[in-house]
């Protein structure tokens, strides 16, 4: 088991995501957390050679310095491992890394970035068709993680969004258990 990333390392990873990001890449730690949660919940193992380019929007970036590439790769690998370990070791305590934003209504939870990352992870892992009860759980995530739903999201109040957080957490747990249940 690799050591958990420190706050300083998480800040460094987010800086690297921003520095080397583009319109198609993972944009922040919340999205990356969702992405790695989906990969760890996947029925098939996805190798870093497959997911690293997906994080960067299609291909690994051209780094300005070798130290940036080393830090980017090492921190990504450790963070992916950290999320997988958290899910495997204590699924019932798992909490997604959700951002908050200040609005006219006060502080609101931002679900979209995390959910976009999760949905990207399901695509990279090429999740199979789910049975209806699991598909309904995935829809609780895709509501906030697909551009097609922007109109619905715009109509939601801060309280409506806040009410989605427990549903999102439950969805993660159900989907993880579905794909990792012991075979009979």
Blueprint of the fold:
Blueprint: H1 7-19, H2 29-41, H3 48-55, H4 66-90, E1 99-103, E2 106-110, H5 112-124, H6 132-145, H7 150-154, H8 158-180
Antiparallel strand pairs: 1-2
Helix pairs in contact: 1-4, 2-4, 2-5, 2-8, 5-6, 6-8
Q: In words, what does this structure look like?
A:
This protein is mostly helical. It has one domain (7-180): Four Helix Bundle (Hemerythrin (Met), subunit A). 62% of the residues lie in helices and 5% in strands. The protein has 8 helices and 2 strands, in the order H-H-H-H-E-E-H-H-H-H. It has helices at 7-19, 29-41, 48-55, 66-90, 112-124, 132-145, 150-154, 158-180, and strands spanning 99-103, 106-110. Strands 1-2 form a two-stranded antiparallel sheet. Strand 1 (99-103) and strand 2 form a beta hairpin. Helix 2 packs parallel to helix 5 (112-124) and helix 6 (132-145) crosses helix 8 (158-180). It is globular. The chain starts with 6 loop residues before the first helix and ends with a helix. The mean pLDDT is 92.
